[in-house]
Design a protein that fits this description.
single chain, mainly beta, 11 strands
Length: 131
């Protein structure tokens, strides 16, 4: 149905910025809810951000409290790539970042933040924040 490929990870200094990409193939990304999750060693995979088209003119964006005001999720004008722009990174942001996709109707914040809500996952891209 859809294949997801993450890119853009790397090593950055605290306070730095990074932009991750989630490229979708098989279907337009605009037909899916897209979520970003991250997983640090020894920890559970946690929600970061999500984006979903609610209707023809409205796009919903959700963020975890830990990244609110620092991260921005957006889609490109072709509708086939979703970006996660990350600013003011700190060492707690170090993790393997995954994007995920699901076909769903307008969803609650709880649904968008749940790993089990998503059907398709990429392989992940590593983000390391270190001085």
């Amino acid at each position: 149905q859809v294949q997801l490929t993450e890119s853009g990870g790397g090593v950055v200094r605290p306070g730095g910025s990074l932009r991750l990409s989630c490229a979708a193939s098989g279907r337009s990304v605009s037909t899916y809810a897209i979520g970003w999750f991250r997983q640090a060693p020894g920890k559970e995979r946690e929600f970061v951000a999500a984006i979903q088209a609610k209707d023809l003119t409205s796009i919903r964006r959700d963020y975890a409290d830990s990244v609110m005001g620092r991260f921005t999720i957006a889609r490109d004008n072709a509708g086939n790539t979703v970006y996660l722009s990350m600013d003011n990174l700190n060492e707690e942001d170090t993790a393997l970042y995954y994007c995920a996709a699901s076909v769903m109707g307008a969803a609650s914040s709880q649904t968008l933040a749940a790993r089990t809500s998503y059907d398709y996952w990429g392989q992940g891209t590593q983000v390391t924040v270190s001085s």
